[in-house]
């Protein structure tokens, strides 16, 4: 397992995380009762599939997987791909803490793809 997992975050979510020190994520996260994350090699396909036509400004957050402890669970999503999900201890659905974020970079869309230095 990698030392880092990644969160595709809207500007509003990133601002909330900085202001409050934590976030429960967006509507999908609250309805699922976990924070959706990605491994680095899953970020670009996830951006293309779910965010390509989004008009929202997006950030890519690099998260220290060790700081999420046993609340970070890798689960099979589409029958073959294992994605990281953050539930919190005993699947209690706690917010993602700011102190787990090691880097945050604004994503730019150009030439039909997203980029930032974390993806290069």
From TrEMBL:
Concerning InterPro entries, the annotation shows:
DUF952
What is an example of a Pfam family matching this protein?
DUF952
Source taxon at top rank:
Eukaryota
User: Which residues are in coiled coils?
Assistant: none
Q: Which PANTHER family match?
A: BLR1139 PROTEIN, DUF952 DOMAIN-CONTAINING PROTEIN
Name listed for the protein in its UniProt record? DUF952 domain-containing protein
Q: Which organism is it from?
A: Phaseolus coccineus (Scarlet runner bean)
